[in-house]
Amino acid sequence: MVQRLDYLKETPSQTAGPYVHIGLVPNALGNPGIYPEDLGRSPILPGAKGEPITLTGRVIDGAGMILRDALFESWQADAAGIYPGNDPRGTADPKVTGWARVAADFDSGIWRLDTIKPGRVPFPDGRLMAPHIAVWLVARGINLGLQTRIYFEDEAEANAQCPVLARIEHVERRATLLARKTGPGAYEIDFRLQGEGETVFFDM
Amino acid sequence: MTKPNSVDRGPLFFRDRDWHPAAYTPGYKTSMTRAPHRALVAMGSTLSEETGPAFGHSMIGELDNNLVMNFTGQPAIGERIIMHGRVLDENGRGVPGVLVEMWQANAGGRYRHKKDGYLAPLDPNFGGCGRTLTGPDGSYEFLTVRPGAYPWPNHVNNWRPMHIHWSIFGSGFGQRLITQNYFQGDPLIDLCPIVNTIGKQEAIDVLVAALDMNRAIPMDCLAYKFDIVLRGRRQSFFENRKEGM
Question: Mutate which of A5, A7, A11 to disrupt the B interface (most B C-beta within 10 Å)?
Fold first, then answer.
């Protein structure tokens, strides 16, 4: 016998289900009157430093259907690469909260995130990761929230040096994380849950 | 009382993927086209997972954790219950000051959602969501009504056991968790395909809130206790030493 390790186990996940909006974005759903406003409507405040960008996209299942009941949260650094709140390296731009809650449109399934392009943040060994937005995606049928990242196709040099992208063994799959530039400050990226062009999901 | 979490910066413990439900669980049909087929790319956490959003008391309204009263100010119909417990991490420490959000069906098993067409009526005084911040020891408390069971289209005659949905933040974005609690003694728990996406009975058991007569209020409401555990963080005394570990 040995001493017993006294760690607890993480509570097992269960799906967010089809009615996640009731709890997380009740005003967007059309249930006003409980909270004055939904949390995470924007990851920035007016006057945030950096390049303003708009990201749009869809969440698509393995049968090619666009999800209307998906919701994700995004978390990002400011333009200098500092995270708001508890970043041990310093204080972020006070106009950047970094966190947003983004629900797919109930009819079209298209989501939209208006933010600023984040700066580079170091990997634990000090090498710089490429600019990215961390994403945690939930929906009916997803048993445990999916972790992925949004990178930017026009950051080729930084992307080539990113230690996280480098860990994706199937090189051609790295492109699934790159938002495509469609105009000045405009990017598009779809999250494909399964099958051809399946988005890279992380266990980090 | 456990001491508050004083280390909120270390790398996250790795997730035990055999403890969580698998992504692809044919008993729950919707998962079949929404489960990634490729292996997850696994690596240790970075600053992007170790930092996360924080929420302040100023955004929390007085009735936010009172679902009986928070929709119209008139009481909702149903069996009044207190839901309480603590948010802990895998090190066993209470996680203070984190946002806990919850949502649920009303006492008849009907959700206030435009996509829910179940024939049980809406309760005009029940909105169905609440939120609170944990106290210094990670504790939280809600007053609500016990949600009803309801049927759902999966196999022909599937019913969800009584349950509440929970959304919990830690101090890092990588600790983000959504789950559901069930209620002690509900015979529908064992029959539910969503419950059974979890492979281990031991893991299902920790989602079943226990009747807690010590917290029940005589002539007012019953109470159930539901503790929630988030991923832990490594305590890194040696991390800055060049000789390392």
Answer: A11
